[in-house]
Amino acid sequence: MLFTLHIVKLEPGHYRAHVMEGHAHLGDCEADSISAAIQLMAENPLPETAGFHIWYEGVCAGTTPIADMRSDHEGLAERLVALHSRFKA
Question: What is the phi-psi region of residue 11: left when phi exceeds 0, alpha when psi lies from -120 to 50, beta otherwise?
Fold first, then answer.
């Protein structure tokens, strides 16, 4: 299964990650960084999770397999931040 992971910055060093299946909200987690939120979801996936569509604020890193989230959570976070900085108003 593919889920959506939407990460929002609440304040510096405080992020909330929402897990969605379509329009259904499945849960939240809190982390001190984007990378930590991605890693947390990769380490504790829902049953039969193949991967996530990963969003930070209004930008998407794409559909990402769990294995890539485990091995490259830092790189994914850097990509999201770079995309966000390119498109924020």
Answer: beta
Residue 88: band (very low, low, confident or very high) from pLDDT cuts 50, 70, 90:
confident
**Three-state helix/strand/coil letters over the chain:** CEEEEEEEEEECCEEEEEEEECCEEEEEEEECCHHHHHHHHHHCCCCCCCEEEEEECCEEEEEEEHHHHHHCHHHHHHHHHHHHHHHCC
Q: What are 42-81's pLDDT values in tens digits?
A: 998 778 899 999 999 999 999 999 999 999 999 999 999 9
Name the amino acid, one letter, at 74.
Answer: E
Q: What is the rounded distance in angstroms from the CA atom of residue 28 to the CA atom of residue 73?
A: 18
